[in-house]
Design goal:
The chain has two domains: about 180 residues, Flavin prenyltransferase-like (Rossmann fold); about 180 residues, 3-Layer(aba) Sandwich (Rossmann fold). The protein has an eight-stranded mixed sheet, sandwiched between helices. It has a five-stranded parallel sheet with strand order 2-1-3-4-5, sandwiched between helices. Helix content is about 35%, strand content about 25%. The longest helix has 15 residues. About 0% of the residues have low confidence. With about 400 residues, the protein is α/β, with parallel strands linked by helices. It is built from 14 helices and 21 strands.
């Protein structure tokens, strides 16, 4: 990679295009090589010459320029390939409804859309448009498609728009866009300590049906498991994520297998674990399931009625997986406890034949469910190490450093 990060700014045809001028200037002044690609509509809002002056680089506006900065016609016409190969990160901002729709359906009728299809660089998309357009089912469906492609969607801000409407759809502040670019660059340059390795991560809760409308579950959001999957992928691993029901997006370069019940998660783990080098059980599968599932909705038994409920234990997924351990495999478990029951985590370490277990007291502030931080203790057969309050991404990074 060149000494300077190579950032491509794809500017769409929205009124917020003028804000990208400040972003381009900031990045250029902070030791970044910025290349601007504009749609034809973007040129109606900001002149290409403005970006050229700010970045000191030619501005690309067409697949077929006559001549570009002294290059031959053929070389200039291959800008979508040369930029696609040199880019470290591509940010599309403002991403209009039209641009988002084209990308979601694989259209490549201009330089910017062709560039996106041709690159392997991380792609960040910052939607900015009228609130009604943003909330339209077509736009939302297209954004979800882009998430499934592995593109990072930067959530728009809310406020008064140029069209006088109020709502979500404003381009985020420059600082937000800069931080997203920096995060993408950092992920791309992480040491590939897991290159050539296969990692299996479980995440989220499971659900055990009571009847057609009710189920037993828990408060797990899946955020810790998803952070582990994403971190492994950025370190070069081939990652399989077995996930219970969550609202989280699939991390980039991660294969996700969706399951609902504990038995389904058990089956998926037993199928895929034998082919993996590292298995991390971060999910919170239900410990019990109803002995019988009603085929019809269970009716309320009156104000004083008591509903008897018989539960049977579900299979202990990680304990069964370690029984089939192959030489060289590493198994890491998680123990979410209350009242600082570190002894219970140590018991599980030995009982389940794990190499290490990550203990956290979910009653501690900053370490519970559905938040972005965690306070854990790493417990192996040779050490017990309490870590401070960290983001779940930082916890994931430390876990892989321990594994390495």
């Amino acid at each position: 990679m060149p000494a300077k990060p190579q950032i491509v700014l794809g500017v769409g045809g929205g009124i917020a295009a003028y804000k990208i001028c400040e972003l381009a200037s900031h990045l250029t002044q902070n030791n970044t090589d910025v290349h601007v690609v504009m749609t034809q509509s973007a040129g109606r809002f900001v002149a290409p010459l403005t970006f050229q002056a700010l970045t000191q680089n030619p501005v690309h506006t067409s697949l077929w320029p006559e001549n570009h900065s002294g290059e031959s016609g053929v070389a200039a016409s291959m800008a979508h390939i040369s930029l696609a190969e040199k880019a470290d990160v591509i940010l599309l901002a403002p991403a209009t409804a039209d641009l988002i729709a084209k990308l979601a359906h694989g259209l490549a009728d201009d330089l910017l859309t062709t560039l996106v299809l041709a690159t392997r660089a991380p792609i960040l998309i910052s939607p900015a448009m009228n609130p009604a357009m943003l909330s339209h089912p077509a736009t939302q469906k297209n954004l979800q498609t882009l998430r499934e492609f592995g593109y990072e969607i930067i959530e728009p801000d809310s406020g008064r728009m140029a069209c006088e409407h109020v709502g979500a759809g404003r381009l985020p502040a420059k600082g937000v866009l800069v931080s997203q670019i920096e995060a993408a660059l950092q992920a791309k340059t992480k040491p590939q300590t897991l290159a050539g390795k296969k990692v299996l991560v479980t995440a989220g809760p499971t659900r055990e049906n009571l009847d057609p409308v009710r189920f037993l579950s828990n408060r797990s959001s899946g955020k810790m498991g998803y952070a582990l999957a994403e971190e492994a992928a950025t370190r070069g691993a081939q990652v399989t994520l077995i996930s219970g029901p969550t609202q989280l997006n699939i991390p980039r370069d991660v294969e996700r297998i969706d399951v609902t019940s504990t038995q389904q998660m058990f089956n998926a783990v037993m199928q895929h674990a034998p082919g993996c080098n590292i298995i991390i059980a971060a999910a919170a599968p239900a410990d019990y399931a109803p002995l019988e599932v009603s085929a019809q909705k269970i009716k309320k038994q009156g104000a004083k009625g008591v509903l008897p409920l018989q539960l049977a234990p579900t299979p202990d997924i990680i304990a069964h997986a370690t029984q089939a351990r192959k030489p060289g495999q590493i198994f890491i478990g998680f123990a979410a406890e209350t009242n600082s029951e570190i002894g219970e985590a140590q018991r599980k370490l030995h009982a389940k034949n794990l190499d290490a277990i990550v203990f956290n007291d979910v009653t501690q502030q900053g370490a519970g469910f559905d938040i972005d931080t965690n306070r854990v203790t790493w417990i192996s057969h040779t050490e017990t190490e309490a870590w401070p309050l960290l983001s779940k991404s930082e916890v994931a990074a430390r876990i892989y450093e321990k594994i390495a």
